[in-house]
Specification:
Blueprint (H helix, E strand, L loop, with lengths): L17 H6 L4 H13 L1 H12 L2 E3 L5 E2 L7 E2 L4 E2 L1 H5 L4 H4 L3 E6 L5 E5 H17 L7 E5 L4 H13 L2 E4 L6 H11 L3 E5 L2 E3 L2 E3 L1 H11 L8 E5 L14 E3 H4 L12 E2 L5 E5 L7 E5 L2 H13 L8 E4 L6 H13 L3 E5 L10 H9 L3 E4 L1 H10 L14 E5 L5 H11 L6 E4 L33 E4 L10 E7 L9 E2 L3 H8 L10 E9 L5 E6 L3 E4 L2 E4 H9 L4 E11 L3 E10 L6 H18 L8 E4 L13 H9 L14 H7 L3
Parallel strand pairs: 5-18, 7-8, 7-9, 9-12, 12-13, 17-18, 17-19, 19-20, 20-21, 30-31
Antiparallel strand pairs: 1-4, 2-3, 4-14, 5-6, 10-11, 15-16, 16-24, 22-23, 23-25, 25-26, 27-28, 29-30
Helix pairs in contact: 2-3, 3-11, 6-7, 8-9, 11-12, 14-15
The structure holds adenosine-5'-monophosphate-propyl ester (PRX).
Length: 656
């Protein structure tokens, strides 16, 4: 850890403008009092908020159950329904308020009010019930980012079914693995989608996935929403059912299924440091509370805001800040199905102008792409409705931060750089926009009620001006409850005995805490890459490569990338002779395709190099640090005295 680069803390502070502060939900007096309350009694602090901000069908009397750490329970005897909190409770005063402004890839705009969304969700919930889906059943959703995906998720929540959304960019194989692990009864999909002008036949992928499953697989039905009238569709009767046929004659009233606060709301698979993805399971009450409070504190939600989070519903950001958070606080939000660069790199700026977006939340990788494709392009658009900007997914480099601040925010919008994870459910570290003085590249400090520190290997809590493991020292309502089907993996991965003695939630990131107590994320501790803000396990990619008959052995590392943050670099030993020249090029493209099919396009290596051997210690461990230097193209300065086969390095330095 000592060789980790410390970031300078002696840099410029950006203060929020007076006009922003004057109307912000949280000023410094409120923030101090929230922090003090949380410091005095953090369970009580959260309990008071849960009573105020959530509609409970039956109020809770128990706050936090710590009897069986780290399996914490919050508000366990409370009874609620998340969909009721997102829809029904707005019908009294805000029935006609626009809930969603949806813009498709090709530019078709559809607006849906809270009343209309409530009806759509109720109809679909009744449809799910009619095919036997009930409380506790698991449902896979494999759909494009769209109103229908939100309807499907909300409908599951409405009847107590547990959804697991699989990002539409994942391959059929990845889908099959998730269907099995989640033991899903149905898959909800579309015939296809258009993204960046290209057709992606999603239902075909579902067919391929189901063909991979054992004969006695749990899937009873595939529900298909007709989105693009894809012609080459295969149909398996009676398994496959059209969405529009299933909802025929279904009532638009569907009383909610009341569930316990700890009832699983969803499972979302994410990469870990081993080969198989982890099914992160979230609760109902605690997760909802985190979504609501961060909408209010971090996004400073106002009744007239037009909120736009660009994340796909297939990721945690799309769960919390598209499907649940904005609806729970009754916001109006934009849902954009396409990509920032299609048909031209001004698409985001057009959307902000046309829909008068006031709060814009995106990822550094998108910002860097847009800078590259059109530094001055935003100036052609009226972005004056913006009042707050957000960033998520990876560290934002100061240059990108400054461009975002100056060119998009016109130096008047605070930027909330939000650090959090699939497992934390909602923001953990973030500026409070009307209070915090910003530093470009720092996600600043913990939000109220969240206790974050850095520790060293021995578990000692470190102070300012130090680097260490980022840990959350106290339980919090929105946290992961377990890994689906694997409670032991949950304990081992997040409360390991060897770091912090199992007392703290170990996030898996290194961080620096500067002289003012601001946090700077330095990167992952484990073998997890962050490619365009998405987590990918190196082991997951290595296992997939090793499945290919050409491959004898493979090692995968990351290297810095201007746009994506990190790029994937694979080192491969083939069976038989080491390929060179044109043959190497052919095998490289074959293996890239293979990874696309095994995991999904996001996991395709940017570069594959071939060698006769991988650099190993005498005990047979691959020396990845050396591979990292090779991938970066920098000189190897590390100690190589334990290296068994130094000649392997020279070969691997050669580009195909
Ligand atoms: O390494 C951190 C990075 O993304 C990881 C979590 O990835 P995922 O579960 O896919 O969730 C991404 C969206 C919440 C973290 O462990 N990360 C996330 N946000 C930031 C970040 N790194 C630096 N700054 C951030 N704001």
């Amino acid at each position: 850890m000592s060789n980790l680069k410390s970031v300078t803390s002696d840099i410029r502070l950006f203060k929020p403008s007076k006009s922003f502060c004057d109307i912000a939900n949280i000023n410094s007096i409120i923030l101090d009092s929230l922090n003090n309350e949380a410091k005095m009694d953090y369970p009580l602090f959260w309990a008071n908020l849960a009573k105020k901000h959530i509609h409970w069908h039956q109020p809770f009397t128990k706050i936090l159950n710590e009897d069986n750490p780290p399996f914490f329970k919050w508000f366990e005897d409370g009874v609620l329904n998340v969909s009721y909190n997102c829809l029904d409770r707005h019908l009294v005063n805000n029935a006609n308020k626009t809930a969603i402004i949806s813009e498709s890839d090709s530019g078709i705009i559809e607006k849906v009010s809270y009343k209309e969304l409530y009806s759509k969700v109720s109809v679909f919930a009744n449809a799910l019930k009619s095919i036997g889906i009930t409380k506790g059943d698991t449902v896979i959703i494999y759909m494009p980012h769209s109103i229908e995906a939100i309807v499907a998720m909300q409908a599951c929540a409405r009847i107590g079914a547990i959804h697991s959304v699989v990002f539409g960019g994942f391959s059929s194989k990845a889908l099959a693995e998730r269907v099995i692990d989640a033991n899903a009864k149905i898959v909800i999909t579309t015939d296809g989608q258009k993204r960046g002008g290209k057709i992606i036949p999603l239902k075909n992928e579902v067919d391929i996935a189901i063909d991979m499953l054992p004969h006695d697989n749990p899937i009873q039905h595939v529900i298909v929403y007709k989105k693009i009238s894809y012609e080459k569709l295969k149909w398996d009767k009676p398994r496959d059912i059209w969405w529009h046929e299933l909802i025929k004659n279904k009532s638009d009233i569907c009383p909610v299924t009341e569930v316990d606060s700890e009832h699983p709301l969803f499972i979302l698979y994410t990469s870990g440091s081993t080969g198989s993805p982890k099914g992160v399971q979230h609760s109902s009450g605690g997760y909802l509370l985190g979504s609501i409070m961060t909408m209010q504190w971090v996004f400073d939600n106002k009744p007239n805001d037009v909120f736009w989070c660009t994340a796909d519903v297939g990721w945690i950001t799309g769960h919390t800040y598209v499907c649940y958070g904005p609806l729970a606080v009754g916001a109006t939000q934009v849902v954009f199905e396409g990509v920032p660069t299609y048909p031209a790199p001004d698409r985001f700026w057009q959307i902000i102008q046309n829909h008068k977006v006031s709060v814009f939340y995106t990822a550094p990788t998108a910002i860097r792409t847009l800078i590259k494709l059109g530094y001055d392009l935003p100036q052609k658009y009226d972005l004056s409705t913006l009042r707050l900007l957000g960033s998520v997914g990876e560290p934002i480099n100061p240059e990108a931060w400054l461009w975002y601040y100056e060119t998009i925010g016109n130096k008047s919008c605070p930027i909330v750089d939000t650090w959090w994870q699939t497992e934390t459910g909602c923001h953990m570290l973030s500026p409070i926009p009307g209070v915090t003085n910003l530093k470009a590249g720092s996600c600043t400090q913990a939000i109220p009620g969240i206790m974050i520190d850095i520790i060293d290997e021995s578990g000692k809590i470190l102070g300012n001006n130090d680097n260490g493991y980022l840990v959350i020292t106290k339980p919090f309502p929105s946290q992961i409850r377990t890994i689906w089907n694997n409670p032991k993996r949950y304990e081992d991965a997040y409360y390991p005995k060897d770091i912090g003695d199992g007392k703290y939630y170990i996030a898996g990131d290194f961080a620096h805490k500067d002289k003012d107590g601001y946090f700077w994320i330095l990167g992952r501790v484990d073998d997890v890459l962050n490619v365009s803000g998405h987590r990918l396990g190196t082991m997951e990619i290595e296992s997939a490569l090793a499945l290919n008959p050409i491959v004898a052995e493979a090692a995968v590392v990351g290297r810095p990338h201007d746009i994506k943050g990190e790029a994937i670099c694979a080192f491969v030993v083939c069976r038989g002779e080491r390929p060179t020249g044109a043959k190497a090029k052919d095998i490289e493209s074959e293996l890239r395709e293979w990874i696309g099919n095994q995991i999904g396009a996001i996991a395709k290596p940017d570069e594959i190099r071939f060698g006769d051997n991988l650099p190993k210690t005498r005990s047979g461990k691959i020396m990845r640090r050396l591979l990292r230097s090779i991938a970066k193209g920098v000189e190897i300065t590390q100690d190589i005295s334990t290296l068994e086969n130094p000649a392997s390095l020279e070969q691997l330095k050669q580009v195909n």
